[in-house]
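Notes from hallway chat w/ T.B., transcribed later so I don't forget. T.B. wanted the structure written out for a chain they're using in a teaching module, and asked if we could keep both sequence and structure tokens in one place. Agreed to drop them here.
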Amino acid sequence: MEIGGAYEGKYGQSMQNYAAIQKASKRSHDGFFQRLALGSAMEHPDGNIRKEGKAAADVMVEMYLNYEKAYLNGELDEAFDTYSDWEYRFIFPHRSVEEATWLRQTMRNYRPDHIFMKDYKWRYCRIVKTDIPYTSSVKRPVRPDLGLSKMQDYFLEGGICGHRAFVGKLSTAAFGIPTRGARQTGHAAMSHWTPEGWTTVLGAHWTFNRWRGRCGPDFVLETQARENAKDYLKVLRSQWLGDALGEAKVNGMAYGTGGGFWHALAFYRKLAIVEDARIVALGPTGEELGESNVEATAEKIPQVELTEADKTIVIGKDGVVTIPVAACSNPKSTEKVRFMKSIDGGIQVHYSLAGKRPELLRYTLQSPSTGKYKLTAKAVTVTVDRSFLLRLNRRTLVDIPLPYTRGMWEQTKPVTIALKEGRNTLQITIKAPNKGLTIKSFTLTPVSK
């Protein structure tokens, strides 16, 4: 009851879900895992999504176990085990466990810079700005022959506000950030938790939000008032009295209107808590990006520290040449090219959608002898029909096709090039139309005579 009760009063279904989770996991009986199990069960009595042939409890168990495993593997946000009981209600996304797992892994491979961001307002959901451009009239699915999930399909060509909000919501929720939708008139946005309070992203102010039977101001008032747990018990007791007496509740969709005596008293007690504590609601984040790709202010481009190992080309005893991406002549991040730390160590480079002009990555290596090599690149793509252009020693142009890796690391198919003895230069650029590409390293394997 202290975390808000069962959604739509569906206590029977909620408790079935909770019992099923606790039966499936010993960890769900204690600590924050127990609070996650209970909060999720209360918020999703009918399951967080509907799956044909699966009971709500089975869907909830599957999702819970996914998050438990992700936490134990160190894949969730550092704040995951610090939330209040109530905030754990908003962890599970309204998407399948397969899509949550896919986007979590894809971002770890493809855009770890969004995971390492210090700014919680943009952490994770920045992927919408960088990789889901606002585009209309896109025929869905874009590539029916590939059998993609809806989430994977959005990365191919972008989409309108709703598609971008779906990606933004899942990107934060997949990493364990409490997240909700934010429907607005003629528009779709999202909202999520930050250490400073909840914020609306990709849309207008809270005043214009609504989601699951509550307007934005009503929800954000509760997020603020619950910061004072002791005083909020007075709010809850008033609400419980109102329920016991059969009173009408305050209208969640019409801020502060309606309700019997005890429910109205509870509402005004929440206002008093917030006013006394002088709590200020966060403004919207990226409001100008709701239906646009252009930010109001230019982004400060972060630079990553590089070690000598990050920049050193290695020639093995077998003659195999490994070129880390940071070994280029100018490993500096720009609007177009971003160097970033990899989740599994080392450096990777992302050639992004941003910027109007292509940029070169230039590498110089000393070959011990003249000969042919098979070149491959360790890469991640989230779009189809991509390639990059290799210019060898300022003369030879080689088109390198890129596989559609669905967000996972893969080696490109080998392409044979000829190196001369001594100094060789390789210049890499991405062919237009630019779409995101992440590369970790290049490998040159000698071709046996």
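Follow-up for T.B.: DSSP finds eleven helices and 17 strands in the chain. Might be a good example for the class.
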